[in-house]
Structures are given as C-alpha cells and as structure tokens.
Amino acid sequence: MILIVIFFVLAWVGWRFFVRGSVNTIVQAENKVKPASCSGATKKKRKDVVSISPDKPEHKESFIKRSFFHKKLKLTLLPLASLILVLAVVGITLHFNSRHVIAPFLPQEYSQVAHIQGTFTEAKLEPPPALPPEVFISAAAAAARPGLATANRDWSQLDPQFVQTVLQIMKKMTERGYPMALLEGYRSPERQDDLISQANVVTKAKGGQSKHQYGLAVDLAPMKDGKIIISERDPWAFAAYQALGEEAVAAGLTWGGVWSFKDYGHIEKAGSLAAMLRNK
C-alpha cells in the first residue's frame, strides 16, 4: 500500500516538474522548426527559380528534423528513466526493510555503557570486622591510654563520605605493609572534656571543638603480629605513621602529625570546623 502511494506521488512529481516541462519545451521547439522549414521551402523555390544555389536544401531540412527528433527523445526519456530509477530504489528499500533490525542493538549499547560506567565507579568499601576488646585493653595499658577499651568504634556514627576516604587510606596502608586499626571514631563532648583533663594529655581541644564530635575525625594505629602498637617510639610504628600521613595528605585530609602538638594517628577532614558548621 505504501509503495502504491509513493508511486503515484512520484508519478505526479515527475509529470508536474519533468515530463510536462519537457512537453512544453518540445512544443516550443516545434514552433521554431516550422517557420524554419517554411523559410527553407520558400528559399528552395526561389533558388530553384534562380538556380544558382550550390547547396541542397533538402539535406539541411533533413538534418533539422533529425536533431529535433533526438532532442525530443532525450527530453522525454530522461525524466521517465529518472522516475523509474527512483521507484526502483524505493521499492527495493521497502522490500528489504524488514531485514534491517535496529532494536536489538540498543540493549547491547546500553549494557556496554553500563559496563564502562561500572568500571570507572569504585565499589563501596565496607568497614573491617570489629577487633576483640582484649586487643585494645593491652594496647591501652602499653600506651597509658585509659578509656581506650571503651572508646567508640562504630563506623555508622561517622560521616559516610569521610568513612569511604578513611577506608581507602586503610586499604592503601595494608598494601604498603602497615595494616591499621580504628582506635576511636565518634567522640562525645563529655569524653572530649574528660580526655583534656587527664594527666597524659592526648588532645588540646575541648568538647565541641574537635571534629570527632561531628564524625569527621578518626584515630588509627598500626597493627603488627595481631597487636596494636600506639607509641611512635617504636621504629616500625613511626614508619607506619609517616606512611599514614602521606596517604592522608594525598587523599585531601589533615594529618595530626604536622601539628605542634603531635597526634600521629589522627586524621580528619580538612578545613575549618566553624566553616563546616556554617555550611551545614
């Protein structure tokens, strides 16, 4: 049905813009040839009477007729041939249209895009399993850090984006041969004040002044042979803390090892705490 409609449309276009114009051209050419023929006949009679013409008028008239016929044939057949060619192309295209299936390529293309996106999207890291309390009790005794055994190590109370950054750092530290353990994450204002009042000072920030209270800071320590080594006096632990500082700075965090009051195991989100609170 579509082919028939296209045929009639193209036939009308061919007649309107090609064949009809050719017919008009032919009619105009005929009108020009007839006077020329009559003029040639008149001249022939005159030349026959005078009998002085060296040329044969009938040859000239025959040449004009042949030229007119060739021109008429060209102007008629060319539009028709073009019309037939267009119809043939349309017919062949419609006939083989059912063999051109595009839809199955769309899911394949989508799956390829999804695969590329998945390749460049890093998988979400999960926090490591909780260590036994005994590990922290012995570490606290060795480093004179009271209250460490009961410190908050709940990853869910920390900022999710910050957690992912810390886990990435811990992963790189393990690859460098320095596995790290979380000593403390979130810290309440009351515990913060309690720590600052102890004889063995581990912080100079009061309650509400530390990023621990906002889930944006953690204290880490290296582990060796299943034991946590907090003191930086241990050469291996000191090297681990230096590596921690390198990884933290590379990740855009602040490392406590560069402060005047050294806190080698402390890393936190960079920036002013006051500015962060204003932007919340």
TrEMBL record:
UniProt KW Protein transport keyword: no
CDD domains noted in UniProt: L-Ala-D-Glu_peptidase_like
Protein EC: 3.4.-.-
Transmembrane segments: 77-96
Start and end residues of each Peptidase M15C domain: 204-268
Name by which UniProt lists this protein: D-alanyl-D-alanine carboxypeptidase-like protein
GO molecular function: peptidase activity
Pfam family for this entry, one: Peptidase_M15_4
Primary enzyme class: hydrolase
Species lineage: Bacteria, Pseudomonadati, Pseudomonadota, Betaproteobacteria, Neisseriales
SUPFAM superfamilies attached to this UniProt entry: Hedgehog/DD-peptidase
UniProt keyword terms in alphabetical order: Hydrolase, Membrane, Transmembrane, Transmembrane helix
InterPro entries: Peptidase_M15C, Zn_M74/Hedgehog-like
Provenance organism: Iodobacter fluviatilis
